[in-house]
Each structure stands twice: as C-alpha cells, then as structure tokens.
Amino acid sequence: MGFWIKMNIDLHVHSEYAPNGKWPLRNIFELAKARDISYLAITDSYCVEGLKEASKLSDEFGIKLIKGVEMQSNSRVHILAYNFDENNEGFLRTLKESREWADSGKIKGMVKKLQDNYSIDITLEEICKSQNTISPSTKQFCQALVLKGLAQDWREAKELFFLPNSKNGNCYIGVKYDPEYLVKKAKQAGAIVILAHPQQIETKEVNIDELMPKLIDSGLDGIEVYYHNPSFDENKKHKAFKLLHDFGLKIISGGSDFNGNNITCLGGDPKITTDLISEELYGGK
Predict the structure, then answer these.
(1) What gap in Å lies between CA 205 and CA 221, rounded to an integer?
(2) How many Cβ atoms are within 10 Å of 19's Cβ, its own excluded?
(3) How far apart are CA 240 and CA 233, in angstroms?
(4) Which residue among 133, 161, 189 closes a domain?
(5) Relative to the CA of 49, which of 152, 207, 259, 285 has its CA 20 to 30 Å away?
(6) pTM for the complete prediction?
(7) Is the dihedral of CA 275, 277, 279, 283 positive or negative?
C-alpha cells in the first residue's frame, strides 16, 4: 500500500466553514505545511462550501487536497465521504437539509428537553455564547452544563443528561437521517464512504454488530481505524481493525478530527502516515 516513502496524512479536519470548526482554512494549511503533511482532507460537517478555497490553498502550499465531508446520523453514528461529485444534487440536498436541522430544530429541541425534563434554567443563546459557536455540538452542550455547575466534566454531563439511561430522560436529539441513508446518498455521488471513529459510537444506543451489515448493504467501503484524540489507544485501534476484518471491508482511513480546539493535533500524534492508509483514499500521488 502506498509509496516506499512515508508521507504524513490527515483525512479528518474541520474548518471554520462548519459549526464544529474554529480555524480559517489558511491557518489550517499553514499548520499542515509546518507539520510536513502531504495529504489533507477537509471534512466539514454537512458542508462543502470550503472546498473551493481549500483547492486554491492546496496549490499554494503544495499539499494534496482530498475532498471530504462528515455527516452525523440520527443515532450519533458519523459517516465520512471522500472524492464525491460536488455537483450531485441529491447529495448536496441531503447535506443542506441535515445542516438546517442541526442548526435549528435539533439544538432548540435539546434546550427544551433540558428545560422540561430537568428544570434547568438555560438558553440556546447562553450555550452558544459560552462555547463560541452558532450551532453547539452535544459535547458543547455538556461543557455549558459544566459551567453551570451541573456536572464535574463533560463526560459526567453526558451521562446525566444525554444517554438513554439518563435519570429524567435522554435530552439528545439526533439529526435528520439514519446512517444507512447517508451512506446511500454519498455512494450515489460516487464517494468512498467510511465509518468515522467507531470507538466513539455509543453502544447504549447502537448495536454495532447489527448496524454494520446495514451500512455495508448501503455501500460502506471502510473504517476510520486511526483516530487520534486523547482517548485513542492501541486497544481501540485493534477493535477497529477487528471490525474491519469481521465484516470484510478493505479500506482503512485515519485522521485527527482537528477542529482548532487543541483537543487533537493536526496530523495526529504520533503522526498518521500514508503506509497506514488505503491508497484508494489519497491516490498515491
């Protein structure tokens, strides 16, 4: 797989074009150049608007761009799509509808559940201000609740308010589509489709052994085996490899999930290299 020369690669990066990214694309490419990254995928959630600018920066910095997008399903399963047709109307419509629901109905509904189920005095405006975003993620909801003294850390807040066994009910609301639908729409746009960070799938809500055949029937191509965040370890990597092999998938992806919050290191730490990643994703050039 790949060249005899190992090159640094990161196939999971978020920019300020999407709500879960903080950095301008130019800053991302500057850091990628400083870290000797040769292949970079911008995978903004539900968003491809940054790819035109990223393409120009790719030429300027001499870093090969892999077109990407991340999609969250209604069960918190995340799907990554690469090298898709940017003009596929069905796929673009799916991204637009998902983004609109994530930016409005989902987050407003989660605030209402916190207010109704737990009598928490909190507003969407308060959450957005404290987390410096216009569309907070579930983790940012949790971090806002920590600031109100309702939990010790975001993980405890998630346990208390956003899981199926939460005491007064699960305040989580999923996005518009199930993961199988997202895989199908991405495949219709010619994408290589990857299951993102399987080690983060909430097993209380999703049975991975039941989910995988559905995703494969819909066209899933591979798994993000290398996922560099603070909780990633060798055991989780081995589990991801086992999932890949148990279900006969061939394509291995990897990325940092960098979003500018210093939770992860662009390019991974240790760095992710091309010899670890399937050549179908980056073209080997």
Answers:
(1) 23
(2) 23
(3) 11
(4) 161
(5) 285
(6) 0.87
(7) negative
